Amino acid sequence: MKRVLITGAAGFLGSHLCDRFIAEGFHVIGMDNLITGDLKNIEHLFKLEHFEFYHHDVTTFVYVPGELEYILHFASPASPIDYLKIPIQTLKVGALGTHNLLGLAKEKKARILIASTSEVYGDPLVHPQSEDYYGNVNTISPRGVYDEAKRFQESITMAYHRFHGLDTRIARIFNTYGPRMRLNDGRVIPAFMGQALRGEDLTVFGDGSQTRSFCYVDDQIEGIFRLLHADYHMPVNIGNPGEISIKDFAEEILKLTGTEQKIIYKPLPEDDPMQRRPDISRAKELLGWEPKVKRAEGMKKTWDYFKTLSKEELQKKEH
Ligand code: NAD
Ligand code: UDP
Prior knowledge:
single chain; alpha/beta; seven-stranded parallel sheet; two-stranded parallel ribbon; 10 helices; 13 strands; 17% strand; binds nicotinamide-adenine-dinucleotide; binds uridine-5'-diphosphate; EC 4.1.1.35; membrane; golgi apparatus
């Protein structure tokens, strides 16, 4: 039976990856220090013979006994409020954590896929963003801790590939959403849906003209799975090119949730990217992949998930 190590397993994407690899017949080893994740996301897997969980911080030496076919490195805070609250850990998990996992991959002769991000393009001056664009990142802004950690992560991964011949993959993930996002993680979809559920007004930052392109989690996981199995070492954008302004998105959410609240405006966070849309030509060509789930359908599933959360979870505020 093939064995896969997934870091960040108790988080949003990591937990969906665990489900996918279990369904594909793998022995799955999940690793997480629970700094932004939640065991609830994987508790359904604990009873399975072919699932193991290591409560471990990947910035310290990582050891897993036995063979490993694949490593998927997804551990990292991913929401702006998380990485602004824990900036040093964010830098460490992108740098030291990635170094540890590359070392483990070398030791085990395993293929490794790392979760990079559209944030490597910073506040992009090129639109849409293709993999050839070098980006526009402010190294020293508060947000820079995440962007630079991920840029370093890509550099060290390519260095291991070129210098040690390691079998590497780099997924540049664009805004992804769906069930198991943390309601209070500050990202725009949980933020708006949490506000809708609590009967609060929806907080649009800036004038809401900034854009994002949202990818449903099932599409994202399929893209990552295909990339892992493709013979390609350079970065690949995985995301949904359907772009929308944050103001229009807030209006869509008000319609979807059928709530009476208004939109209110708050200051735009420093270095908040003004536009973002993936060019997915490379993924289409290499992986025969493109997203299938329409925003209306994905948002409905996400709303149905958030509606099942308890009152206590709803009241837990983190910002
Ligand atoms: P998440 O916060 O839900 O999950 C991240 C998980 O990593 C959490 O369970 C957290 O506890 C764990 N973690 C953090 N630091 C760790 C450490 N030092 N050791 C062990 N575990 C640690 O976030 P997510 O949305 O699932 O993101 C997962 C990955 O995908 C991240 O690397 C993120 O940068 C990347 N990504 C996500 C998106 C997105 O839209 N969701 C977009 C781009 C990139
Ligand atoms: N945003 C907003 N209101 C909120 C939370 C976020 O207007 O309550 C905006 C945020 O400023 C950004 C966009 O929504 O322009 C997406 O934010 P998110 O944190 O989800 O992702 P990222 O900025 O990392 O793409």
